[in-house]
Specification:
Layout lengths: L8 H21 L1 H26 L9 H18 L7 H18 L3 H17 L4 H32 L2 H19 L11 H6 L4 H10 L9 H7 L1 H23 L1 H4 L6 H20 L1 H38 L1
């Protein structure tokens, strides 16, 4: 049997297209169930292995301890989400935005004086910035969710393909876009799909994402009830298929690139500890999905924050590569 780690780059790209198709088919049939499975089973293993890999890469920053500042911001997100829930919709989005802006400093600037000055100016700017619902939606909801799993995954893939100059890689990048668009263009057959009470209850903490995406894409609904829109309407199913596909492939893309990224090359003790934590997290989700969500909330947000410098580096690489091609 051919191991994934022994495949060539082109074979991995074709395998990824296959993973996209499988994810898309499952997302069309059982969108909510697929998301819940992927988030509970594939998600924690992705968080743990990616954080370990990023640590080996010094988180793509110029400072040795930059990741600590991003981790502290993540602690604040957790604190104001569960320990002392904030009464304003702008606080958590502002912390997320500050983490993203700090990441730009960490990636591009090494001089500590410039770093501190810019960090203070950014903090003042965010504190005085007028916020509203749009700010909450794009920074507080979309950035750590659908932008992270879809846009940043696409950028990570595209950057790698530009370095490889692989036709199969370009095809995989295009396939990701075409499949995502297909969820909004292709009318899925009537499968008499109904969301069970358990699934609806388990997905409750995510429903704002669906509601805002329905509005963003201008999908019409016959009801003003948010629950009915998300869990019973055609618009709700269309958006959920896109979300389930994006999250599932986000995780599968990471695991399929083992031979390229080499995230598995860690000490055996680290790998054992990682697998132990992963099994524990899956058990928590199995006992009570909402308990699992709250227990893994910090870890899920931590990997989002720690990945910001990599996301910035990916877009920087894309821009530089395209400039070189034009010349």
């Amino acid at each position: 049997m051919l191991k994934l780690s022994s495949l060539s780059n082109d074979q991995i790209h074709y395998a990824n297209i296959g993973l996209m198709l499988v994810s898309a088919i499952l997302a069309f049939i059982l969108p909510f169930e697929l998301f819940l499975f992927s988030y509970a089973v594939l998600g924690p293993l992705h968080y743990l292995t990616e954080i370990g890999w990023l640590h080996k890469k010094n988180y793509y920053t110029k400072g040795k301890y930059d990741f600590l500042f991003l981790s502290i911001l993540c602690v604040l997100v957790f604190y104001f989400s569960f320990i002392k829930p904030t009464k304003t919709d702008s606080l958590i989005p502002s912390i997320i935005l500050y983490g993203l802006l700090l990441s730009f400093i960490f990636v591009f600037i090494k001089d500590n004086l410039y770093r501190i000055s810019l960090a203070i100016l950014m903090l003042i700017g965010i504190a005085t910035f007028k916020t509203g619902e749009t700010y909450f939606i794009w920074i507080g909801v979309f950035l750590p969710t659908i932008i992270h799993v879809f846009i940043f995954t696409w950028a990570f893939m595209f950057y790698g393909v530009l370095k490889q100059k692989s036709k199969a890689g370009y095809l995989s990048v295009l396939s990701l876009g075409f499949i995502a668009i297909s969820f909004f263009l292709i009318k899925a057959p009537q499968l008499q799909y109904q969301v069970s009470d358990y699934v609806a209850k388990s997905y409750h903490l995510f429903h704002l994402l669906n509601s805002f995406l329905i509005d963003l894409f201008g999908l019409k609904t016959d009801t003003q009830d948010t629950g009915a829109t998300v869990f019973q309407s055609n618009a709700g199913f269309v958006v959920m298929r896109f979300i389930a596909f994006s999250y599932t492939y986000h995780y599968l893309n990471w695991f399929s690139k083992t031979s390229i990224i080499k995230w598995h090359q860690v000490p055996k003790k680290t790998l054992f500890f990682t697998l132990l934590l992963w099994v524990f997290s899956v058990v928590l989700y199995a006992i009570d999905y909402n308990i699992g969500l709250k227990a893994l909330y910090f870890l899920s947000f931590l990997h989002v924050f720690l990945e910001f410098p990599l996301n910035i580096t990916s877009f920087q690489g894309i821009i530089n590569s395209l400039r070189f091609v034009k010349k």
